[in-house]
Amino acid sequence: MNQRILAAHAQARAHLLSQQTCPAHWQGELSSSALSTATALVALHQVDAQQHAEPIRQGTRWLVQHQNRDGGWGDTVISKSNLSTTLLCWSALRLCGLQGEEAARVRQSRALADAWIQGQVGSLEPQAIQQAVIGRYGRDKTFSVPILMLCAISGTLGPQAWRRVLPLPFELAAFPRSWFGALGLPVVSYALPALIAIGYARFFHAPPSWWNPLRWVRALLWDRISPMLRTLQPSSGGYLEATPLTSFVTMALASAGEQVHPCVPGAVDFLRRSMRTDGSWPIDTNLATWGTTLAVKALGKITPEITAWLLRQQYQETHPFTHAAPGGWAWTDLPGGVPDADDTSGAVIALHHAGMQVKTPAQQGMAWLLQLQNRDGGIPTFCRGWGTLPFDRSTPEITAHALLAWWTWLPPTDPEPAFLQATQRALAYLQRVQHQDGSWSPLWFGNEHTPQEENPVYGTAMVVSYLTGQPRLHDLARDLVQRGAHYLRRVQRPDGAFGGDESAPATVEETAVAAHALMSLPDPQMRQSGLRAVEWLLSATQDGSTFASAPIGLYFARLWYHERLYPIIWTVQALRRACEITAPQPPQG
To answer: Which among 361, 396, 427 is the end of a domain?
Structure first.
């Protein structure tokens, strides 16, 4: 068995290295997205349907070709159909259509979608669709309002369409950024461009009554707020490098007669450049920084080229989008990225492999994470204090990641008081949010096959792995770790594999991270459970040579994706740990 693990590790490691498209980093590949494709088509159609006729035609064909058999669309080509994506694709096909023989295929596709939506919503009546969308997202308007707007633009919300689009208070963008947490914006922190553009489009098409003061306040403030969209736009033209967000901003402005707005040309150029040769769009350009730090941790080493590249990605100035302080890292090396806690933690940990010569930037990253800690002791993704909506709240896996980042560099015997106090607060937070069964629910990863679409296996595995990553941290978190590990053992499938919970289908990603977590513990029973998971991995990956991706990643507003690197990286990490605990000497390099 040990020789098989060693050989599989070598094979998987070689495969991971072969995916390094650039000498200094991994770029990866995000799955194509029906949702992104639909939003891009509508945006281009609104700006100039004739000028962009060819990409619209290619994208429309792709949507028709990748419709699920049940008539709906999922976020990826291997995802279950869901209401949000199906409504967007159904509406985009109505707006864009095709000519000649292809038009018949579009009509057939829309007819299948009609039946699927009726089965989910009960009817195709605009009010029923509106209520279904609002019900899916609750008071978080980050995604419900853009969906309703696209339906209104495409003509699938009836004659009073814009009245069915919930208004957004775009005038709040005129307030100082430091007030946003207290103002309780109805969208999450990273969606400010959507708040502005969609809020204005809704006001333009369906303004309040003439006697309502908001009508005059909003009209007067638009000239002041409008330039912010250009200020917030990165040089690439794509907000957050994300096709959906960029598309929603573009179609909103174009629908309101703002086709010549200064941000539109750059946004359109971004959308044209982001289109893939098959006619589809991904949700984001790449997760290069995230993928690279994960790869470094899995391999257990870093090259001088990767070190230099990572150091170049550290933000040295206050970020114009979120006003984040210098010292953090984003998920991508592209200009549309925004510093966040998960990528900053990953970079700080990865840089430790480079030694003390990078201590100063690592300490800057540690301090950046420290100032991000929320009052509840947890670490949010982007902004401290924006805790009213799910994607701005503290989250357990990011909190544990930050703890490992701190303790990777802190001296175990005499840590700085500020970090020790922050650690105690973070561990108290993790204790409060640990479920009765010992699991944690993550924010940025889920599973379509679990009852609440959550992924307690991934969340628990990551928290356990992070908290056991340094001996002193493990000592402080021993009880939390033990409860989490017992949860993982309880939900392991008879064949050794893991899914999102005890009933979900097994995936390479979830099995690999759970195996790594269990093998990180000194308990022989836990390690044995981890090795059982490794046996399943060996079979599923054909001894580290083939890797099937699963859509367990969650992007903004619960948008699913899969990433080509995830199953490779996490398998390498699990096999490397298996080598360490079954062989006298761990593999070198």
So the answer is: 427
